[in-house]
Amino acid sequence: MSLSDKSLEEVKDLLHITFPNRKEKFSIDYLRWQYVDNPRGQVIAYNAYDKEGKLAAHYAVIPIEMVIDGKVIEGVLSLNTATHPDHRGKRLFTILAEYTYKRSQELGRKFVIGVANANSTHGFLKNLGFYLIAPLEVKVGLGSPFKKSSYCEKNYIYYDETTLRWRLRCPHFSYSFKGNAIYGKINMPLFHTAVALIPDGMNVAKLGLKTTSACLNLYVGLGDRISNLFFKLPRFIKRSPFNLIFKDISNGELPQITSENIIFRLLDYDVA
User: Fold this and answer.
1) What structural domains does the chain harbor?
2) DSSP H/E element including 116
3) What whole-number distance in Å separates Cα of residue 262 and Cα of residue 171?
4) Strand, coil or helix: what is 21?
5) Gap between the Cα atoms of 228 and 141, Å rounded
6) What's the rounded Cα separation, in Å, for the pair 211 and 181?
7) Of 261, 224, 226, 220, which Cα lies nearest the Cα of 242?
8) Tens digits of per-residue pLDDT, 8-37?
9) Across 46-50, 60-64, 266-270, least confident range
10) How far is 253 from 237, CA to CA, in rounded Å?
11) Residue 243: CB partners within 8 Å, gap ≥ 6?
12) DSSP element (H, E) containing 230
């Protein structure tokens, strides 16, 4: 797809139709930050148009890097998928996704990782060759949820200072830090989300974050050593599960990713 303002405007309008409750999120500034400004590379995306030339469907992934078995591997993060209500049931998402993964593979990317909701998980698994790693854990508690993590023991999304600074510049979300954790403010009174453990050796001052008084915090992720002051949400208030899914496009070069060998956090995918 083109990355012109006109093209981004088309995508924004389709996302607004598809996700009417998230119009504030899908702004032109947000799409430009996500699709164009990523220091790992620009978006890989495909569009489908109807006979009148209107955008009927859109699918996008963005380049990321992940440490797998101690090596930094290039992959992509599955992000925005949208199909206009008038064109659903035509397999447009599946077709666009297949084009997107083929192009990603041609560019040397080795995997696709993403978080799917309950409604979309089946389609990713059945039609696009993903496998389910696990639902993300959701816990609430006091202070930082993170005990000291040993990154070398697990696979994880890799950030250097440049990519972490970019990630924290999300146009519509505000990040802060306290102690060993990075937080984001959410629409729950008194609550913040604990989105990431500050990487070892990272200079917090260079990240441009302000300190926060966050006390009651929400953790959504997988694989971290969590504080004993954090507890699973009661079933009656827990949201529909976020399912962590993975697709190997390396022709079998990668090991199986499981819930036991991965660390994955809110900062690692598009929920902000």
Assistant:
1) 5-135+242-268 (3.40.630.30), 137-237 (no CATH)
2) strand 111-116
3) 28
4) helix
5) 9
6) 10
7) 220
8) 999 999 999 998 888 888 999 999 999 999
9) 266-270
10) 40
11) 115, 116, 117, 118, 121, 132, 134, 135, 136
12) strand 230-232
